[in-house]
Design brief:
This protein is an alpha+beta fold. It has helices spanning about 10-20, 50-60, 70-75, 80-85, 95-100, 105-110, 125-135, 160-170, 240-260, 295, 305-315, 390-400, and strands at about 1-5, 25-30, 40-45, 65-70, 90, 120-125, 140-145, 155, 180-185, 190-200, 205, 210, 215, 220-225, 230, 265-275, 280-285, 325-335, 360-365, 365-370, 375, 380-390, 410. Strands 12, 15, 18, 19, 22 and 23 form a 6-stranded antiparallel beta sheet that branches. Strands 3-2-1-4-5 form a 5-stranded parallel beta sheet, with helices on both faces. Strands 6-9-7-8 form a 4-stranded antiparallel beta sheet, sandwiched between helices. α7 (about 125-135) runs antiparallel to α8 (about 160-170). The radius of gyration is 21 Å and the shape is globular. The termini are far apart. The structure holds adenosine monophosphate (AMP) and glycine. Glycine (GLY) binds near residues 150, 285 and 289.
């Protein structure tokens, strides 16, 4: 079987690593891929948003199965473009990916179907938003409606900050058209958990849980980033919470999307907050998390193609999804200065240290080849994942492995997974 993976980040490298393990796969292509994925796949230089070229490539090369990794192409209808040509493809169609593409849509869906989430109002003009804020309690959360690279969420401590936030999102259009609409939402406190789930439109099967660290600096200080590291499983996501979420969130969401004529096929990512008043949804994404995939997928026992194909075929109920009874930690190695400004183009050394070590992974995110060398080419450069029999071991292993890699201006957080010490 020939497989095409669309995307170029650490998440797609983690997906490619699983696909490469599948006994059913003879050849992998990636568009556009990266320097790490290139060890497993033939990388083709096609943009993730160039659907006509991607579809022609798939047809010409007789691709049997395509996996769409990132949010942008999913929300823009990549899956629809492949299906229109009779090609088999994993991911939600445009009318289902809207669960990530529009926060106003996902909030209204949750309200309509009684799925627990923070109280909110939607706005389509700045005047109404500001009038609402005049009487609101603070802190309060402003969210640009559309995709904004995970940066369209502002937590405002007072009216002044909130008014500046409305201006930034809706008037100055910092996040472009993503700010045509806005959600204003109750501020919640608690522990965050990410739960990814395979979905076939009817059945939803959750993977093992994870937790991300979004802020750039230790102690959750600094700016929001795409994610500085993850651990899996989350010990805060207890059996009891899981059972509650299964009934009140995951199954209800699948049924809600079906009732709306928007059957969700692919990976549904639920961002949860465990609050004192119960567990609530922070957000939905229509894809694997990055860097959640880098700790969840290495622990999956199933052949990923079997599971993804079952999602597309509507037979997920026949899959016994299984994860290893261990733990994994991923520490992101970034370029110093990320997420604001940073230099690129430095040679990366030490990859050989990961050879033949089954429990250690170096997932490429922002790298490229330059004259036969691998060099830094982004803010988040690599994700170093290690497994261990428990979270403490996995964390020690991951931090040990961060020492094996070297490049100029290497930066990482030193407290990924530290929260587990509080248990
Ligand atoms: P989102 O893109 O909706 O996941 O938001 C990004 C981050 O903002 C989340 O991971 C939370 O840390 C924070 N956040 C979002 N919504 C809320 C909320 N209602 N209360 C507190 N923090 C929030
Ligand atoms: N790690 C958060 C996300 O993928 O959106």
């Amino acid at each position: 079987m020939k497989v095409l993976i669309i995307g170029s980040g650490g998440r797609e490298h983690a997906i490619a690593t699983c696909v490469a393990k599948s006994k059913r796969v003879s050849k992998i292509y990636a568009a556009p891929g990266n320097a790490g994925i290139a060890e497993l796949a033939e990388c083709v230089d096609i943009s993730v948003m160039d659907f006509p070229k991607l579809v022609s490539f798939a047809k010409e090369n007789e691709i049997d199965f395509t996996i769409v990794g990132p949010d942008d192409p999913l929300v823009a209808g990549a899956v629809d473009a492949f299906e229109a040509e009779g090609l088999k493809v994993f991911g939600p169609r445009k009318n289902a990916a809207i669960i990530e593409g529009s926060k106003a849509f996902s909030k209204d869906l949750m309200k309509k179907y009684n799925i627990p989430t923070a109280a909110y109002e939607n706005f389509d003009n700045p005047e109404d938003a500001i009038a609402y804020l005049e009487n609101a309690d603070f802190p309060i959360v402003l969210k640009a409606d559309g995709l904004a690279l995970g940066k369209g969420v502002l937590i405002c401590n007072n009216l002044e900050e909130a008014k500046a936030g409305v201006k930034e999102i809706m008037m100055d259009k910092h996040f472009g058209d993503a700010g045509n609409k806005m959600v204003i939402e109750e501020f919640m406190t608690g522990r965050e958990v990410s739960v990814l789930a395979f979905c076939d439109g009817t059945t939803i099967k959750t993977m093992t849980s994870a937790q991300d660290h979004k802020r750039a600096k230790d102690g959750d200080q600094g700016l929001n980033t795409g994610g500085m590291g993850t651990f899996s499983p989350s010990p805060f996501y207890t059996k009891e919470i899981e059972e509650f979420c299964q009934k009140e969130i995951y199954e209800k969401t699948m049924a809600a999307m079906k009732s709306e004529g928007r059957d969700f096929v692919g990976v549904l990512f639920t961002g949860l907050m465990i609050t004192e008043k119960g567990t609530k949804v922070l957000e939905f994404n229509a894809r694997f998390g990055d860097p959640e995939a880098q700790v969840v997928l290495p622990r999956m026992k199933n052949d990923i193609i079997d599971v993804m194909e079952a999602c597309v075929d509507g037979t997920l109920d026949q899959i016994d999804l299984q994860f290893e009874d261990n733990a994994a930690v991923c520490v992101v190695l970034a370029s110093d200065g990320y997420p604001v400004s940073y230099e690129k183009g430095f040679e990366i050394t030490g990859f050989d240290n990961f050879k033949d070590k089954d429990d250690y992974f170096v997932f490429h995110a922002g790298t490229k080849f330059d004259n036969g060398k691998v060099v830094t080419n982004g803010g988040r450069v690599l994700g170093i994942t290690a497994k261990g029999e428990d979270l403490v071991k996995a964390r020690a292993n991951a931090y040990e492995a961060t020492k094996w890699i070297d490049f100029e201006n290497k930066y990482m957080r030193n407290d990924i997974g530290k929260a587990i010490d509080q248990i």
